[in-house]
Amino acid sequence: MKREKFFEYCFRGLTLLFWPIIIYRLIFLPNYKLEYIMIVPYSILAILYIIIMLISQIKNKFLDNIIVYYRISTLISFILTLASLMLYPTNLTLMMLKLLSVIIYFYISSKSVYTYHLEECVVGIISSVLIFAIAIL
């Protein structure tokens, strides 16, 4: 139970770190160095979280598979959104990968809500719609 809470709080922290970075980008004038300083540590933390969670999940099977898929799709879509919006805004391949990851994120969130009745994944549906709207801007 302690391990489950640890991974839950880390995931919530990573999710909460994402939105101020996006808000910074939308409100303030772009500064490439500052954006790079914000995105690289976030991406490293998110990738480390995914790797540690997968290793722990393989060893102990403490989470349902749909929750693991939800968390991985969330963090990958967040990383790709930050990279395509802030670091490489003219890269078409990265934008297509971002849109694909957001669609997968929306699908997994919807499936989690409607099939498995996980209420925390409602946030995933709203987040994926917001990310898609930001991508269109």
Descriptive account of the structure:
With 137 residues, this protein is mostly helical. It has five helices and no strands. The longest helix is centred in the middle third of the chain and has 29 residues. It is globular, with a radius of gyration of 15 Å.
How would you sum up the global shape? Answer: globular
Q: What is the arithmetic mean of pLDDT?
A: 93
Strand content: under 5%
Q: Label the structural class.
A: mainly alpha
- Beta strand count: 0
Terminal Cα span: 42 Å
Helix content: over 70%
Low-confidence parts: none
- Enumerate how many helices there are, as a single number: 5
Largest sheet, in brief, is: none
Cα radius of gyration in angstroms? 15 Å
**SSE series:** HHHHH
Concise overview:
By secondary structure, the chain is an all-alpha fold. Helix content is 85%, strand content 0%. The protein has helices spanning 2-27, 32-60, 65-87, 92-114, 122-136.
